[in-house]
């Protein structure tokens, strides 16, 4: 069976009771990949009836005033089994076991900004997906992005637009958008995709859903070559 490799993923954080309808809207607009998590603090996973990706969230990332989908007194292995770091390697071994059992197809980590952690996990099983904040505040996560690119790991980004207002407003991005008759957000998404990044989008606007998906079809020609180089040097330093 082929594993879908989407260019853009619809994110469901902070959608609350609107989750189901927004996921339906996203699929109607053409999305075929959805991100959620077993973390009631930010997600309503039970309202995502069709999904590709979820995440185990340890106690430290949960809101203790909301129901936790496992007993925090259990071992990490049992917590992951129940929700499908006190000990990251133990958690990783549980994910490996789930993959070996055919429960999940790909395994990865989120909010990991130290390549040494990725390398340590890779000693047990190659990390297949990394989902991180990719924004101006961390200079677009260069070390982890490079590690993922060099090692064939799928890099997924969130805060792609909301975390980089200066990038969205950059004159070079505005010029590219104007010349290509697209939006600045589409320019940023396409640039990210060209650099082996799969952006998540959590928009609730159906037009924006369509535009985010259409970004994959944009072609950057000679008319925006100079502006493209400016943004690449800003974000990727090359």
In short:
The protein is globular. The protein starts with 8 loop residues before the first strand and ends with a helix. By secondary structure, it is of the alpha/beta class.
What does this protein look like?
The protein is α/β, with parallel strands linked by helices. It has 10 helices and 6 strands. It has a 6-stranded parallel β-sheet, covered by helices on one side.
- Low-confidence stretches at least 5 residues in length (pLDDT < 50)? none
Element string (H = helix, E = strand):
EHEHHEHEHEHHHEHH
Structural class: alpha/beta
Q: Quote the distance from N terminus to C terminus.
A: 38 Å
Fraction in beta strands: 5-15%
Strand line-up across the major sheet: 2-1-6-5-4-3
Radius of gyration: 18 Å
How would you sum up the major sheet? 6 strands, parallel
List how many beta strands DSSP finds: 6
Mean pLDDT: 89
Helix content: 25-40%
Shape: globular
Tally the helices: what do you get?
Answer: 10
Task: List strands and helices in order, with pairings.
Layout: E1 9-11, H1 19-28, E2 34-35, H2 76-83, H3 88-100, E3 108-110, H4 115-122, E4 129-133, H5 142-150, E5 154-158, H6 165-168, H7 171-180, H8 184-194, E6 197-201, H9 206-214, H10 225-236
Parallel strand pairs: 1-2, 1-6, 3-4, 4-5, 5-6
Helix pairs in contact: 2-3, 7-8, 7-10
